[in-house]
Design goal:
The structure holds 2 protein chains of 2 kinds. Chain A is of the alpha/beta class. In chain A, 45% of the residues lie in helices and 17% in strands. Chain A starts with a helix and ends with a helix. Chain B is mainly alpha-helical. In chain B, helix 5 crosses helix 11 (221-230). Chains A and B meet through helix 1, helix 3 and helix 6 of A and helix 5, helix 7, helix 10, helix 11 and helix 12 of B.
């Protein structure tokens, strides 16, 4: 009788383990051995969103494997899990928005940006993020947001600082905007249900909301700076110091990937189907960011200034030169 | 319905045959009713089809999922975490339970500690798991094992306590050693409790495995669910929820089958098969 229980337990574990092995194989099959025969496995913490398409595209094109880097992407629900993951060494690299990196730096978290990630496309009214309102809303422009509730995915971060800047530029009082925290994917429903007056959405939420009749009233990134560097790939200062060769190779491969993605937007769009579940109309309509190879220092200075103005760095000043050099 | 009732008198002989019992038929009728409601409701102004797609749309999304490699590897990852975690929890729970339960001093010494640790919700350990192991399988295992271990342990302890003192005294007077007493007196009494513990643990383990994937981002169905959510792919979200539900049903049925097999001699199981 006991033998039977043990046998059953073993059978379950074996079946499960076999199933598990099958899955891990499929993930690494894309990597091929490098020219010099040495392959380093590199884990990158990412959020499964449009912005990281070049990374997946570069992996597919072999830009990383040709440099001896075997990429493994680990998706986290939000940037909050990626920075600790990189600092503790679970990921060698991570993807994060630039305000979060500045925040981390002012809090003494040892991170260092290594290569550009994504930037605003600079088109007011057609940028990667927008403040959306319901079709019949009384809000016509960013100025009207004062006195209303605006949803952002994370408070005290890149969303609310840039939305305030849009309001300021339109002549409204940014202090009168009330921000609430709602995940991007829940924003279209929150807006539709009248739980918020407006919502700062990224993709694909923006495109989904548009299909439901929502209007864009502000493009905070483009209005803050036409070349705003929104996110970059980063590593821990420990890896940056101890393994400059790996950082250099990652930077080169990523730069090539960014360039390739910029030149092949259709392929960038298509690669989304491999790591997200975006499909159909949303896939063809969603707005792509710009993927320049270099960060825009002036835009980062601007972003840091906005953060300071809003007091999110706790009275400290981020050192742009040290973080993004 | 009439045919069901007509076939009922012949049920004792037919139960093992292909004809489903009325209980099953009524259950299926309930399920069909739910599907019908889900199909109609989104077409009314009560709920938006954008957030609750009709059952047929969900069904199509589910069918499409079955053709995706990522779905199957995610299913494998979830079952791996579930299976390994459950196995560890059951082995550790039974071992610890037998040791603690058969030594009165140990039992008294650990009672308060167990009562303190047991109610800590496993999900509260998510930040700890993330700090220790990141999105690794180990972080999933930490949550799964922690949650299901107590289910087993507490049942084992309760089962051992239920052992007939007269039987124990008899065993002692026949000079059975500690091992003999555990083997022939304590264990058979405890076994029904243990099986209940295992059944509860199996379900809890699945809940925690999916939670870990959903919240931490460990590979598996939960993570796929999170990806579908961030992609705004609502039908896929429901299809994945449906999948986890089906696994839950399968896990429960399997656990019941194992229980039925292992305890075929026990009054509870014999009673159940007769009353059906």
């Amino acid at each position: 009788m006991q033998r039977r229980i043990l046998g059953l337990a073993l059978a379950v574990v074996t079946v499960a383990a076999v199933a598990g092995c099958g899955s891990s194989d499929s993930g690494s099959s894309a990597a091929s051995p490098a020219g010099d025969g040495k392959t380093t496995q590199v884990t990158v913490g990412v959020i499964p969103i449009v912005d990281v398409a070049p990374l997946y595209l570069g992996q597919k094109q072999g830009f990383f494997s040709s440099r001896g880097i075997e990429l493994k992407m680990v998706t986290a629900q939000g940037g909050a899990a990626i920075i600790p993951g990189v600092v503790s060494g679970q990921f060698q690299f991570g993807f994060s928005n630039t305000t979060s990196l500045m925040l981390a730096q002012t809090k003494g978290v040892p991170v260092k940006s290594v290569v550009n990630g994504a930037a605003s496309n600079g088109k007011v009214g057609a940028d990667v993020t927008a403040v959306m309102v319901k079709k019949d809303s009384s809000i016509k422009s960013a100025k009207d947001l004062a006195g209303h509730t605006v949803a952002v995915n994370t408070l005290q971060n890149i969303g609310d600082t840039t939305v305030r800047e849009s309001v300021r530029k339109a002549g409204g009082d940014p202090a009168d905007v009330k921000f609430v925290e709602i995940p991007f994917d829940q924003m279209p429903a929150a807006l539709d249900g009248g739980r918020v007056d407006a919502a700062w959405m990224g993709e694909p939420a923006q495109t989904i909301a548009k299909a439901q009749g929502a209007r864009a009233v502000a493009s905070p990134f483009a209005e803050t700076h036409p070349k705003l560097t929104v996110a970059t790939y980063f590593t821990s200062t420990k890896i940056a110091q101890e393994n400059p060769d790996l950082v250099k190779k990652f930077n080169e491969a990523m730069t090539e990937s960014l360039k390739y993605a910029s030149e092949h937007p259709d392929e960038a769009r298509q690669i989304l189907t491999t790591y997200t579940k975006i499909s159909g109309d949303v896939l063809t309509k969603l707005t792509l960011p710009n993927w320049p190879a270099q960060v825009d220092t002036a835009s980062l200075e601007k972003l840091a200034g906005l953060g300071e103005q809003d007091g999110i760095f706790g009275g400290k000043k981020p050192d742009i030169g040290a973080l993004f050099s | 319905m009439t045919t069901t009732y007509a076939s009922r008198p012949a049920a004792p002989a037919a139960r093992r045959g292909p004809a489903p019992s009325p209980v099953v038929l009524r259950g299926l009728a309930g399920l069909a009713g739910l599907v019908a409601v889900l199909e109609v409701l989104p077409r009314t102004p009560l709920v938006s089809a954008d957030y609750l797609p009709p059952a047929s749309t969900i069904g199509r999304a589910f069918w499409n999922l079955l053709g995706e490699g990522t779905f199957w590897s995610a299913l494998g990852d979830t079952l791996t975490g579930w299976g390994i975690g459950l196995a560890i929890a059951v082995l550790a729970g039974v071992a610890a339970g037998v040791v603690i339960g058969s030594v009165p001093v140990l039992r008294a010494a650990t009672a308060s500690t167990i009562e303190f640790l047991r109610p800590i919700p496993s999900v509260a350990l998510i930040p700890v798991a993330v700090l220790l192991y990141g999105t690794d399988l180990r972080s999933k295992l930490l949550l799964v094992v922690y949650a299901s271990f107590w289910q087993v342990l507490v049942q084992v302890l309760a089962g051992l306590q239920d052992a007939d003192p007269v039987a124990q005294d008899t065993a002692r007077s026949y000079r059975l050693g500690t091992w003999g007493r555990i083997r022939y007196v304590l264990w058979p009494t405890a076994l029904p409790y243990v099986m209940t513990g295992v059944r509860l643990a199996a379900t809890v383990a699945l809940v925690l495995a999916v939670t870990a994937e959903l919240v931490i981002g460990a590979p598996g169905l939960g993570q796929q669910l999170a990806v579908a959510q961030t992609s705004g792919a609502v039908p896929e979200v429901y299809a994945l929820v449906l999948t986890t539900g089906l696994i839950g049903v399968a896990v429960n049925l399997a656990a019941r089958a194992v229980e039925h097999r292992v305890l075929h001699w026990h009054q509870s199981q014999r009673g159940e098969s007769q009353s059906r």
